[in-house]
Amino acid sequence: xxxxxxxxxxxxxRGASSVQCAHCRRATRVERHGAxxxxxxxxVRSVFTNIGRARPHPGYPPVHGNKRxxxxxxxxxxxxxxxxxxINDVKCMSFLLTLKYGxxxxxxxVLTDEERDPYRRPTRANILVAMRWLVHGCSSGDSLVFHFxxxxxxxxxxxxxxxxxxxxxxxxxxWQLNGAILDDEINEAIVRPxxxxxxxxxxxxxxxxxxxxxxxxxxxxxxxxxxLWIDHSAPNGAWKNTxxxxxILISGCTDDEDAQDGYGHETMAMxxxxxxxxxxxxxxxxxxxxxQLLQKTKAILVDCNRDSQIHCDxxxxxxxxxxxxxxxxxxQEPQLxxxxxxxxxxxxxxx
Length: 351
Prior knowledge:
One of its GO terms (cellular component) is cytoplasm. This protein is an alpha/beta fold. The chain has helices at 40-50, 86-99, 124-135, 175-178, 183-191, 272-282, 290-306, 319-322, and strands spanning 18-20, 27-29, 67-73, 108-112, 143-149, 152-156, 166-170, 181-182, 199-205, 217-221, 227-231, 246-251, 335-338.
């Protein structure tokens, strides 16, 4: 059955009158939401009936058009884990999507910790509901984007679906109270509902984020520039792929690396990956291949590490946010994983 708050699927013990959601912690009465479906056939039917179903909070953009984006930036303001860049990251990604790639402004949902609307605060429950908004009713030809900038982490895998024994996660604003969002949950929310003809690009600027969508194919680029696809399927055989669509993750670093945040003036700092990805995409004179985009993104990361200041001829409206990025301590390695293998040096990147 579905949670009455966030629409997550819940396993219910036979005869139980209520069940508590592990995502949002809300208790839902079983009898109010219909009978529990028993048996393998019934379970599969219930999964595919509910795929993509969402109950968005009031104020979320209506689902229309074939381009939609969810942008989450968390500065963790006032905490010991405070970051200077994520909210700026979201502003620049929104600018990139609208001006460069034609995303309607009213089809971009933004969650940051400067939002006053309680439904747009990047809490665990709100992010999970927003993820379901992103994929709700998706159909062939749709282009979806999920961008997250904030803290990432790892914790011990409990269900045997990780090759390294660690689940990757992103940290919502209330992670210390309600926990992080695991890669298993992200995969269930925005990967498995993707039907034939739907494209999802996730750009994750966080530590330990290399495989945070749990996609089954991990791309490593050899010294000669040729891609080497590595099987990253779950060891326990768990299904982690889409329902026919295509999901691609560009992440800021490997599962055991830290992502760097840019330091300069507090209103100008950005995450290293978001800054480098933004610059690589914005200044591309023609649509790059995925290989070219990754190569350029990494080159900018190297420049950021080498130079004390980066100056680019960016549009005046966003110049205050990206004028200066200082001292990225170490060169992180951008990662690419995918639901399907493809030739990254031939396939054109397009959102």
